[in-house]
Amino acid sequence: QVQLVESGGGLVQSGGSLRLSCTASGSIWSINTMGWYRQAPGSQRELVAVSTSGGDINYADSVKGRFTISRDNAKNTAALQMNSLKPEDTAVYYCNLRTRRVLGSWVDYWGQGTQVTVSS
C-alpha cells in the first residue's frame, strides 16, 4: 500500500506563487510517475504536470512556463512550484503516484488534496 501526504496549498493573490509538496511512502515499484492533478468546482479532474521515473516531464498547456514540477526519486517526494498564479488556477490539487511491476498493470494512488485559491 502507498500513502501520499501533501502540503503547501493556500490563498494567494493573482500573480503570486505557491509551492506544493508531496511525500510518498510504502511499496513503490521502480517504474512510476509522480504528478499533480487539479479539480475545480463543477469540472473534471485534469492533469497539471507529471514526472516519470525515467526523467520525462509533461505539463498541461495552461501551466507551461508558470509551473515547475520536480521530484527526488531517492526520497519519493515531488513538488510543484507555481508562479504567476491566475484565478483560473483555483482548484483542489491532488498528488498522484502511478506505479507498476515490470509486467504488471498500473496502479494509481492519490493524496488527500490541497486547496489552492487565487484571488483577483
DSSP helix count?
A: 0
Structural class: mainly beta
Low-confidence stretches: none
Percent helix, as a range, is under 10%
- Say what oligomer this is: single chain
Q: Sum up the overall morphology in one term.
A: elongated
SSE pattern: EEEEEEEEEEE
Straight-line distance between termini: 40 Å
Q: What's the rounded overall pLDDT mean?
A: 95
Beta strand count: 11
**Gyration radius, rounded:** 14 Å
Defining key terms:
elongated; 11 strands; 120 residues; mainly beta; seven-stranded mixed beta sheet
Short description:
This protein has 120 residues and is mainly beta.
Topology diagram in text:
Elements: E1 2-7, E2 10-13, E3 18-26, E4 31-39, E5 46-52, E6 57-59, E7 67-72, E8 77-82, E9 91-100, E10 107-110, E11 114-119
Parallel strand pairs: 2-11
Antiparallel strand pairs: 1-3, 3-8, 4-5, 4-9, 5-6, 7-8, 9-10, 9-11
